[in-house]
Design goal:
This protein is elongated. It has helices at 169-174, 282-285; strands at residues 29-33, 51-52, 64-66, 71-74, 77-81, 83-89, 92-96, 98-101, 109-116, 123-129, 133-134, 149-160, 179-185, 192-198, 225-231, 236-241, 244-250, 265-271, 292-305, 327-336, 339-348, 352-360, 363-372, 375-384, 394-401, 407-410, 414-415. The strands form four sheets. Strands 1, 4, 5, 9, 15, 16, 17, 19, 20, 21 and 24 form an eleven-stranded antiparallel beta sheet that branches. Strands 2, 8, 10, 11, 12, 13, 14 and 18 form an eight-stranded antiparallel beta sheet that branches. Strands 22, 23, 25, 26 and 27 form a five-stranded antiparallel beta sheet that branches. It contains two helices and 27 strands. By secondary structure, the protein is mainly beta. It folds into two domains: 30-305, Jelly Rolls, CATH 2.60.120; 327-415, Immunoglobulins (Immunoglobulin-like, Sandwich). Residues 1-20 form the signal peptide. It comes from Paraglaciecola algarum.
Length: 421
Amino acid sequence: MKLTKFLLTLSLFSSSLVYAKPPEPELGKRWVINNAYSDEFNGKTLDKRKWLDHHRTWKGRPPAMFDPSTVSVKNGNMQIANKMMEKPNKKYTISGGAVQSIGQTAYHGFYESRFKASRLNMSTTFWLSNRNVPFEGKNHLGQDCERDGWSMELDIVEAVGGVIDKAFGANFRQGMQYNTHVWYSGCEKGSRSRFSKGANVAEGDGTQAFNNKLPDGEEVWQNYNTYAAWWKNENQVDFYLNDGFAGRIQVDTTLLEKPYSRPMSMQLLTETYDWGRPLPTPEQLADDAINTSYYDWVRSYYYVDVDKDAKQQLERVGKADDIFVESATIKNTRLVLNSLEFSYLYESDENVNALIELSKNNQSIFSKKVKLKAGYGHVADQIKLSKAMDFDKTQLTVHLLHTETEKLASSEPVKIKVNVK
């Protein structure tokens, strides 16, 4: 928990932030960390409660095979150091890496990761997927048999730092390439279809990109960037690049009406692509200055009512990670008869007490304490007055408390404007 007082200037619009967090919650809602799919990577090894150092069902796309020896945790990063295989394995000659979540229950919520890609013609990726399961009943294609099945894939970002010899190569080097896929194994033996939408022109339809380019020609290997997706419901996913809205996908409904209706697992991995040529050379793969993908952190959030607990699938151990900048921001005030109605945003890594204070001429004239649950919330509250009063030179302030009296953070005081209903 950050103990430095942090003031945010009152605004009716979202502030420009220098740290990552989910979009501003709606009134009465709150974002809270989902521990099973979040990691700051500040230890010395992968957290075995959360992660595998390989992929359960996939070796990798030739010529790169997932190799646990490429994965490490050090210097506050999960690192995947791509390399040439010492002993080629048939069609595999390159070692990439895969970190996959133990959990397979990631569902509607916000998912973000901050990373820096390698400078190879290998991807640095962040995505969700699930396994193929039997399709129940008749689908939109009119097929209904015992053989058919389906799965989902949400590619939050696929970044390639190398120079691909395709016209679209710069897209993977200079911005955020995202996709949604619905996979279908049909009734005919061996048939497999993919229904895709997204910014990724190599594996999707190349549509629905909004603001998915890095500024000033910056490339994905040069700096850390934050890539995020708000999986809102069965049909919609919003994407964010460095806290800016990057695009929206209405998931393809060719197969079924509500395709994004099953939980998934999380993947952080590096791979080669059939369309990503030329392949990295042995010299490039041996160059530690360009061969490594650096994941600073991955964070996932539930979206819940502001006063409700989120049922964690994996409880944290010890204190909360330092995610939120403890703060409060008053959004609006309204005087209705003898009640002062107001709303405010707050952030806190831990459950915290808040002091609501009315002051006039720098003297406190009313205060009350409320309990706030950990997270990033948007609260509606009111102060009921025993009688009408003159609000001239009266201010409202929300304080987050570290102790009973010590203030952890305070909103900017807001002058009360009379607006009688």
